[in-house]
Each structure stands twice: as C-alpha cells, then as structure tokens.
Specification:
Elements: H1 15-25, H2 31-46, H3 56-73
Helix pairs in contact: 2-3
C-alpha cells in the first residue's frame, strides 16, 4: 500500500517466454499476459501485503488464491503442464546483472 492509500502490484513478464508458454500450453496469443494481469489484480484486492511467490510458503500467502481466481475469471486459460515436459527444461535463475 502506498502512502496515499493506493494499492500497487508488480509483475514481471518476458514477452519472448510468454510467447513460448502460450504455444506449449495451447493458449492463444496474449493469454499468459492476460492471466498475469488478472492474477495481479486479484492479488492486490484479496492479498494485500502478501509476499512474492518465491516458495510454497509464500505462495500460500496470496499467489495460490490469486492464480486460482485468475483461472476462474478466464475460462479459456490453460496452465502449462510442467510434468508433461519433465526433463526437457534447463532452469537457471539470472539476476539483473546477468549472473546465474
């Protein structure tokens, strides 16, 4: 919450990754961006001051409910089934300076 009472939500989306996720999940163009926007709004309204979704414990503080609400609002959105691609992803976390 900002000093003037407004609520602020942030979300970072990589358009190139978004496009690939939409292809893999069978969603249409822009579906993931729309989902992220709905998720952000649901989180702002229902889980003010929740932690970033960086662990199972933090997810339970707001992300899980925001994600489920976003899915309920957009009946066409489909989650990416990571189990279907098990072993096909090499996940690396890169910080803003490009360090792994």
């Amino acid at each position: 919450m900002l000093d003037d009472g407004r609520l602020l939500g942030t979300n970072t989306v990589n358009p190139m990754v978004d496009e690939k996720i939409n292809v893999l999940s069978g969603n249409g163009c822009g579906a993931s961006i729309k989902h992220e926007l709905l998720e952000n709004i649901a989180g702002i309204l229902n889980s003010t001051d929740s932690s970033p979704a960086t662990s199972k414990e933090n997810n339970a503080k707001g992300y899980d409910s925001a994600h489920n609400r976003a899915k309920a609002l957009d009946k066409y959105y489909r989650d990416l089934d990571l189990d279907a691609f098990s072993g096909r992803f090499d996940v690396k976390k890169i910080n803003a300076n490009g360090k792994q």
